[in-house]
Amino acid sequence: MLFLPPPLMSRHLRAGHIDGYCVDEPWNSETILAGDGWSPVTSADLSQGHPEKVLLISDQFVMDRKDETVRLVAAMLDACKLCQDPAFRNQLIEILAMKQYTGSSPEVLGNSLGTRFEAGQRAHDAASIHVFHGRGVNAPTVEKASWVMSGLRAAGSLPDITGVSLSRLYREDLFHAACQLAAGE
Q1: Could you tell me where the beta strands, DSSP code E, fall in the chain?
Q2: pLDDT digits over 27-52, tens only?
Q3: Is 18 exposed, middle or buried (0-12, 13-18, 19+ CB in 10 A)?
Q4: What CATH code would you report for 49-182?
Q5: Domain residue extents for the chain
Q6: I need a labelling partner for 62 at 20 to 30 A (CA). Which of 40, 49, 125, 173 fits?
């Protein structure tokens, strides 16, 4: 099995070392805009509203530092809300273009973070590609936990563990406490 870090995939595709790859942005857009490849489908096309990333915190950390955990989740929710704001997108692109983050050009980042996603074979509305905030988007639910766990098991990345309560993994109590904190209650 070959493992390539996402920033190297475009270069290896161009050199003919690989025939294709599946990776998150901005690495897809880098290949597309260079004319070296195209995106047949986005993850939003395959599973609209799917969880893309999770914040994973150990039980011990939560037990020892519950208030800090709630503040961390509240800060993440605030950041997600800001990233969803179209008025912030240009600034988000500038931040992500910094070398310490992606180092990608604003043009490449703007391909998926802007209003129109050029996929190589076609272009479409980019609004569904990155959904950072909205009703139910960030809420940790048992349904989302089940979806993630099933995918990890199907990929062979997680053994079939029985008896683990998904509500212990996706802490709705912490989420609701963070929502109250973020709302200033």
Answers
A1: 116-118, 123-125
A2: 999 999 999 999 998 888 888 777 78
A3: middle
A4: 3.40.190.10
A5: 49-182
A6: 49
Q: What is the pLDDT of residue 56?
A: 86
Alpha-carbon gap, residue 146 to 159, rounded angstroms: 14
- pLDDT above 90 covers a percentage of the chain that reads 57
In contact, 75 and 55? CB cutoff 8 Å: no
For tokens 């590609």, the residue is 129
> Dihedral, CA atoms, 70, 71, 72, 73, nearest 10 degrees?
50
Q: How confident is the model at residue 162 (pLDDT cuts 50, 70, 90)?
A: low
Q: Say how far apart CA 170 and CA 143 lie, in whole Å.
A: 10
Angle made by CA atoms 76, 111, 6, in degrees to the nearest 5: 70
Dihedral over alpha carbons 63, 69, 70, 76 (to 10 degrees): -160
pTM value is 0.84
